[in-house]
């Protein structure tokens, strides 16, 4: 298997790097990936890969059927970029001001396209059906995955796999483990209405900042007082808007405040969100203020199935990758919607520069950098190895 996959990657050559750099230079925001989608569909069509009908928006699903029976395996890439001004001085830096591939979705798209085109040339390797899932809008709620599930793709797929490039870990490493790996997320927004007035006559007003201040404290105490001490969760009030800066003698009539919840248990997220709403309504009622509550339930917790984790770890060992011992992240990933439907696996594939000429960079950063010349071929090798290992495991 090793030699077969290596030959395929060598056959593809430097085109994977060229494709990633083209995509990096032409980023598009969530739900606006029209040119990226046109590029994907044109290449799939040219490679003779049919596409599913009935897929919404800018998502695209190509597929190939093998001559032998086997499982239906999905390989997923997200395609959208971020609202960042790129600060890298690169010949392929973003040509669109304020838009940047600062999370590696350009790499994911190039890797999956390479896998699709190679398997189209070597259909003798395919058993059952392989689906190439190019997903719009991973970065922006409600995300692209939930609509793909509504479009019915998980009714066709038995197992779903993905990698996410990691700009903080060097090439030759991967983080892939079973269980919960990414958090369930939620956001809350309060609009509190009191009665404005003069600071010298507070008894004639009803200051909405009073319940707002109590709410900040009460909400931040939820993890400590309302949740199991062993649960991993964060609750943060992240904005508070009221009054006029520098105008000290005017009591405002309105306050806007809100924040976010991140927790590794989707059910616990529901409890926390309901508790936030309860606190908002009761504390404001105690101060005779009105409140409008808006809750947004974002991505659920992302769970890697044990069967999929075993396949991905076996592929890593086959390539002599170091499997990092990394705890779950309170970041979010809408791959979770796939994992709710069928056994699924996602791993973080190291692509930081091992020579340290470029410092490792966090994701969602204007200096985000991947060592693509060496990392992309290795990532392609890994995706193909995972696919072939999955075929062997699920016979």
Word description of this protein:
- The chain is an alpha/beta fold and 395 residues long.
- It folds into 2 domains: 2-181 and 301-393, 3-Layer(aba) Sandwich (Aminopeptidase); 184-297, Alpha-Beta Plaits, CATH 3.30.70.
- The chain has helices spanning 2-12, 15-25, 34-46, 105-121, 145-150, 153-156, 209-220, 222-226, 266-286, 306-318, 336-341, 372-393, and strands at residues 60-65, 68-78, 127-135, 159-170, 173-175, 179-182, 184-193, 197-198, 233-242, 250-251, 254-263, 290-297, 302-304, 322-323, 344-352.
- α10 (306-318) packs across α12 (372-393).
- The longest helix is centred in the C-terminal third of the chain and has 22 residues, at 372-393.
Salient structural properties:
395 residues; alpha/beta; Aminopeptidase; Alpha-Beta Plaits; 2 domains; four-stranded antiparallel beta sheet; 12 helices; 15 strands; 26% strand
What's the layout of helices and strands?
Layout: H1 2-12, H2 15-25, H3 34-46, E1 60-65, E2 68-78, H4 105-121, E3 127-135, H5 145-150, H6 153-156, E4 159-170, E5 173-175, E6 179-182, E7 184-193, E8 197-198, H7 209-220, H8 222-226, E9 233-242, E10 250-251, E11 254-263, H9 266-286, E12 290-297, E13 302-304, H10 306-318, E14 322-323, H11 336-341, E15 344-352, H12 372-393
Parallel strand pairs: 2-3, 2-4, 4-15, 5-14
Antiparallel strand pairs: 1-3, 5-15, 6-13, 7-11, 7-12, 8-10, 9-11
Cofactor: Mn(2+)
Organism: Megasphaera cerevisiae DSM 20462
GO molecular function: hydrolase activity; metal ion binding
């Amino acid at each position: 298997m090793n030699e077969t996959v290596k030959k395929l990657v060598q056959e593809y050559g430097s085109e994977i790097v060229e494709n990633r750099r083209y995509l990096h230079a032409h980023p598009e925001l969530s739900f606006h990936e029209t040119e990226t989608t046109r590029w994907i569909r044109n290449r799939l069509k040219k490679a003779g890969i049919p596409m599913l009908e009935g897929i919404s928006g800018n998502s695209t699903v190509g597929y190939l059927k093998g001559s032998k029976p086997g499982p239906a395996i999905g390989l997923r890439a997200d395609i959208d970029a971020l609202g960042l001004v790129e600060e890298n001085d690169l010949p392929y830096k973003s040509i669109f001001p304020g838009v940047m591939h600062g999370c590696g979705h350009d790499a994911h798209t190039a890797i999956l396209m390479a896998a699709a085109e190679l398997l189209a040339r070597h259909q003798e390797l395919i058993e059952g059906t392989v689906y190439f899932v190019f997903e719009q809008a991973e970065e922006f709620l409600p995300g692209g995955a939930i609509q793909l599930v509504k479009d019915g793709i998980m009714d066709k797929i038995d197992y779903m796999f993905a990698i996410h490039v990691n700009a903080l870990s060097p090439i030759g490493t991967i983080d892939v483990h079973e269980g919960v790996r990414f958090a369930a997320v939620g956001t809350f927004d309060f609009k509190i209405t009191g009665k404005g007035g003069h600071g010298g006559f507070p008894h004639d007003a009803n200051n909405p900042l009073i319940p707002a201040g109590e709410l900040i404290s009460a909400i931040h105490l939820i993890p400590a007082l309302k949740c199991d001490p062993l649960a991993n969760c964060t609750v943060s009030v992240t904005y508070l808007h009221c009054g006029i800066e520098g105008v000290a003698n005017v009591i405002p009539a309105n306050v806007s405040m809100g924040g976010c919840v991140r927790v590794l248990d989707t059910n616990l997220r529901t409890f926390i969100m309901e508790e936030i709403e309860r606190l908002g309504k009761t504390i404001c009622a105690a101060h005779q203020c009105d409140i409008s509550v808006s809750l947004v339930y974002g991505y659920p917790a992302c769970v890697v199935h044990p069967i999929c984790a075993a396949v991905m770890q076996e592929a890593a060992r086959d390539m002599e990758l170091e499997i990092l011992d990394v705890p779950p992240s309170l970041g979010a990933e809408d791959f979770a919607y796939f994992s709710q439907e069928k056994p699924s696996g996602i791993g973080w594939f190291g692509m930081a520069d091992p020579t340290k000429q470029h410092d490792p960079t966090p994701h969602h950063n204007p200096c985000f950098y991947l060592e693509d010349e060496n990392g992309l071929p290795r990532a392609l090798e890994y995706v193909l190895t995972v696919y072939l290992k999955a075929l062997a495991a699920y016979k």
